[in-house]
Amino acid sequence: MLSALFSRSAAQAAEPYRLRQASVEFRNAGKSWGSNQVLRAINLTIAPGEVVAILGPSGSGKSTLIRLINQLETLSEGDILIDDRPTRQLRGAALRQLRSRIGFVFQQFNLYAHLSALQNITLALTTVHRLGEADATARARALLDRVGLTEKADHYPSQLSGGQQQRVAIARALASDPQIILFDEPTSALDPETIGEVLQVMKQLAHSGITMVVVTHEMQFAREIADRVVFIDGGEILEIATPQSFFTRPEHERARRFLNKVLDPLHTEDTHHADF
Amino acid sequence: MLTFDWQGVLSGQPLQWILSGYLTTLWVSAIGMVLAGLLTGLFLLLRLAGGRIGRGLVATWVSLFRNTPLLVQLLFWYFAAWNLLPQGLRDSINAPHSGSVLPGDVWWLSPEFLCSAWGLAAFTSAFLIEEITAGMRAVSPGQVEAALSQGFSHQALLRHILLPQGLIYAWQPVVGQLLNLMKLSSLASGIGFAELTYQVRQIESYNAHALEAFAVGTVLYLLTGMVLGLLLTRLPVARQKPARQARTSTQGEPQHER
Questions:
Q1: pTM beyond cutoff 0.90
Q2: CATH number of the domain located at residue range(s) A2-111+179-266 in this protein
Q3: Which partner for A44 in A26, A77, B65, B182 could form a disulfide, CB atoms 3.0-4.6 Å apart?
Q4: What angle do CA B27, B167, B30 make, to 5 degrees?
Q5: Do A106 and B145 form a contact (C-beta atoms < 8 A)?
Q6: Cβ–Cβ contacts within 10 Å for residue A89, how many?
């Protein structure tokens, strides 16, 4: 089912432009807001098809890091190469073309509030990718089926639960058959009960050929599904490791404290000394 | 005592004038509204996609037409701007054409009609631009980011995401501006445009039936305004409630840690 849905034939009709290989490479990338430097000297290479989890405390710059990839934030220093090509200078149509190859899933879902679940998916197909109405609808129905929401096609976002909205948002991000998909804390705004259904969808997507970068607080997801874990704090990458080694023997002192607090919040020694 | 002679207004030449004036008012309002809509769309796109220069141009346009009297603007278009057009163009507009008369015998290819429609449209667009911008600000910024991340152009973003929702939020003020346009068309009598107000005043100087003539004119404006207002608030866009934004998103709060 998966391979049929993400097959290249449908996508090629929709979008002739494809990345030759869906790699992402940060080269000394940095981001500042005025004098406040939120990311510095980021060097990271993500291979095509790889699943990378980005972990770190709140305010560490994780979200900014992935928002730089499709230029929802503009880079201040360095460059980001996608498909081995620098992207910093891309503007206008070239930037739109690149963005259409990269799916993005937001913490707050950001579904188009005036459109039904189905229309949320078809809109980009008909306007950006120039697909016919019938083709777009068929593709959208297949995607809704894929995320288990066949019945909800005609529901509006306000009529859906958080978990359902996020699954529609994932289906929408997949509409253009992107080769890279970015998740910005996709489960942080969800009720605990609905987190599972979203993680299930993400798990099925992982290792299907698409490059996945996931900013998350879900340690179980990072441990079980990610190929590599990137730990970041204070705007710097402190550790890049396999989940196996990161979760059992983190090298960096800050990573050890972070894991302590996250995995065992009730028994953290320095709770009282934490700077609030 | 006060006595009314309605026959002096509702028959013969005065009736002809009133009908002709009323149809002219309807036509110039309709064309003015369409033109105002087009100008508004164009300037909203310029504000969204035109960078600093584009935003500056829009701000200048809005400031110019909101802060000067409409009558002065109409006089400017008619007496100054019109004469800046190439002579050949003006001649060809004034020359008789087969298509220059609208149903109801309203002559639209005339300097008076064109300057009135354009002047009313430019004036109204200045207000519509700001009101619809305010409506579009109520659309969560996350939806804009979602559209950008999907590769939407500014045009598609405006057309498919911002306008449909912004118009719903701003619809009541928009209706108010369109009604204003219809009523303000009376000021075009100041440039000799033979719409309803102009014709009513003509009756007054023709047979001194001022009270009756202005009463008929007032009733026609009132009825038109009521019918138009009713129609505009019955449109699908007016009956839609603004879509509730995603239940967890909170307006005004930053959506992302940076």
A1: no
A2: 3.40.50.300
A3: A26
A4: 0
A5: yes
A6: 8
Nearest CA-CA distance, residue A238 and chain B, Å: 18
Pairwise CA distance, residues B31 & B34, whole Å:
5
Confirm if B181 and B26 have CB atoms less than 8 A apart.
no
Residues 6+ apart with CB under 8 A from A69: A24, A80, A82, A102, A180, A182, A213
Q: Where are the domains of chain A?
A: 2-111+179-266
Provide the 10 A C-beta neighbour count for residue A10: 17
User: Could you tell me which residues come within 8 angstroms of residue A211 by beta carbon, excluding any fewer than 6 positions away?
Assistant: A22, A23, A24, A46, A47, A48, A49, A50, A51, A179, A180, A181
Token digits for A122?
């078809």
Residues 6+ apart with CB under 8 A from B10: B18, B216
In 3D space, the residue among B59, B39, B33, B198 whose CA is nearest the CA of residue B120 turns out to be: B33
**Residues 192-231, chain A, touching B (beta carbon < 8 A):** none
How many helices, marked H, and strands, marked E, lie in chain B?
12, 2
With an 8 Å Cβ cutoff, are B246 and A109 in contact? yes
Note the pLDDT tens digit of each residue in A3-40: 444 444 444 444 457 888 899 999 999 999 999 999 99
Residues 139-198 in A contacting B (C-alpha not used; CB under 8 Å): 156-158, 162, 165, 169, 172-173, 175-176, 184, 189-190
Write down the ipTM of this complex. 0.88
* Cα–Cα distance measured from residue A20 to residue B42, given in angstroms and rounded to the nearest whole number: 38
Q: In CATH, which superfamily holds the domain spanning B8-239?
A: MetI-like (1.10.3720.10)
